[in-house]
């Protein structure tokens, strides 16, 4: 197995905060490859893999899929892609995800983009999305928020303590949020 040196940016924030939307914009402007952990897990369900039913049940309950499953999918996606710059969207979601990814891959993120948005606005966006996601119903949304507050926010706090977090006000329009995102990716001239 040949190890290539890769740059990874973690894109974190609550359910419906706009991670996927902004990652699509970043790909267009800055040449990253977008890897959504949630999309990889949903593709795994569709492919009829042996883990599919377990993953489907976890997502329906808003629970975090075991690290080894998600990390394997992320690693495979990075190995299959010739790019060396990746946006990892929606992962790591808990302390165990974070520690396992670092020890298994040896990769530390360059920085973390944190989309900060009120719960009220996130619920509104998810209920408007209408893409048939099995977790986009109010019962599951409540569970996703609880897991986010209890398990995912501490990961963001961890990276904040290491000075790696760029907080973005994600409450604004898609265009305004992207202006703030661009400023993070554009190297500034001293
Ligand atoms: N929208 C976006 N930006 C907007 C803006 N500025 N103004 C107005 N509208 C805006 O956006 C959501 C909706 O809002 C869209 O309709 C968009 O047009 C609009 P989107 O960009 O899709 O937000 P995103 O943050 O990506 O929301 P998503 O629902 O994907 O976030 P989640 O973190 O909940 O979902 P994810 O797919 O990452 O995970 C789903 C589940 O998978 C988890 O609950 C968990 O069970 C499982 N999972 C794991 O177990 N492990 C993992 O590592 C990852 C996932
Ligand atoms: Mg998403």
TrEMBL record:
Catalytic activity annotation: UMP + ATP = UDP + ADP; dCMP + ATP = dCDP + ADP; CMP + ATP = CDP + ADP
Q: Cite the binding residues for CMP.
A: 97
Name the UniProt key words of this record, in alphabetical order. Answer: ATP-binding, Cytoplasm, Kinase, Nucleotide-binding, Nucleus, Pyrimidine biosynthesis, Transferase
Give cofactor(s), names only. Answer: Mg(2+)
Q: Where in the cell is it found?
A: Cytoplasm; Nucleus
Q: Which domain of life is it from?
A: Eukaryota
Write down the Gene3D superfamilies for this protein, in alphabetical order. Answer: P-loop containing nucleotide triphosphate hydrolases
Swiss-Prot/TrEMBL domain comment: Consists of three domains, a large central CORE domain and two small peripheral domains, NMPbind and LID, which undergo movements during catalysis. The LID domain closes over the site of phosphoryl transfer upon ATP binding. Assembling and dissambling the active center during each catalytic cycle provides an effective means to prevent ATP hydrolysis.
Kindly provide the name given to this protein in its UniProt entry.
UMP-CMP kinase
């Amino acid at each position: 197995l040949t190890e290539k040196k890769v740059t990874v940016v973690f894109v974190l924030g609550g359910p419906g905060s706009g991670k996927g939307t902004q990652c699509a914009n970043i790909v267009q402007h800055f040449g990253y490859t977008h890897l959504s952990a949630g999309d990889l897990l949903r593709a795994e369900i569709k492919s009829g893999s042996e883990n599919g039913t377990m993953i489907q049940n976890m997502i329906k309950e808003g629970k975090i899929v075991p690290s080894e499953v998600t990390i394997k999918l992320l690693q495979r996606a990075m190995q299959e892609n010739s790019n060396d710059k990746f946006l990892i969207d929606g992962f790591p979601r808990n302390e165990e995800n974070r520690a396992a990814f670092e020890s298994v891959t040896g990769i530390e993120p360059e920085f973390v983009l944190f989309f900060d948005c009120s719960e009220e606005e996130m619920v509104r966006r998810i209920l408007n999305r209408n893409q048939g996601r099995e977790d986009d119903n109010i019962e599951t949304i409540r569970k996703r928020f609880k897991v986010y507050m209890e398990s995912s926010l501490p990961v963001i706090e961890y990276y904040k303590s290491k000075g790696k977090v760029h907080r973005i006000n994600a409450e604004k329009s898609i265009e305004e949020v992207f202006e703030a995102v661009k400023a993070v990716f554009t190297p500034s001239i001293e």
